[in-house]
């Protein structure tokens, strides 16, 4: 089974001061996101490609090397997938 870059509808966001947390009611867990992960999460709408996500993150973190940003975005998407926060695709 593969994942698409789209948030599961059941996952709720919780904003507390400067932190964004995700609550997954299916497993009763809360995840705290760093600034890069917040940017990637916001772009997980099923329409943005990884390249578009990298470009968007690059504009927010312009002092970071492009290769590092690309790796961070991919790792963040892998993490979201691993924890079941993204929609599944296929059978």
How many whole angstroms does the radius of gyration measure?
Answer: 13 Å
The H-and-E topology, N to C, reads as EEEEHHHE
Structural class: alpha+beta
Give the % helix: 25-40%
How far is it from the N-terminal to the C-terminal residue, by CA? 6 Å
Mean pLDDT: 90
Q: Total number of β-strand segments?
A: 5
Q: Main β-sheet, in a few words? A: 3 strands, antiparallel
Q: In what order do the strands lie side by side in the largest sheet?
A: 2-3-4
Strand content: 25-35%
Flag low-confidence runs.
none
- The shape, in one word, is globular
> What is the overall number of helices?
3
Describe the structure.
The protein contains three helices and five strands; from the N terminus they run E-E-E-E-H-H-H-E. The protein has 91 residues and is an alpha+beta fold. It has a domain of 63 residues. The strands form two sheets. The chain has a three-stranded antiparallel sheet with strand order 2-3-4. It has a two-stranded antiparallel ribbon with strand order 1-5. The longest helix is centred in the C-terminal third of the chain and has 17 residues. It is globular and about 35 Å long.
């Amino acid at each position: 089974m593969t994942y698409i870059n789209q948030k599961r509808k059941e996952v709720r966001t919780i904003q507390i001061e400067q932190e964004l947390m995700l609550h997954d009611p299916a497993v009763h867990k809360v995840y705290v996101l760093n600034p890069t992960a917040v940017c990637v999460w916001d772009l997980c709408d099923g329409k943005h490609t990884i390249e578009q996500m990298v470009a968007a993150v690059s504009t927010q973190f312009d002092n970071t090397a492009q290769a590092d940003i690309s790796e961070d975005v991919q790792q963040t998407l892998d993490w979201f997938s691993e924890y079941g926060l993204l929609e599944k695709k296929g059978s």
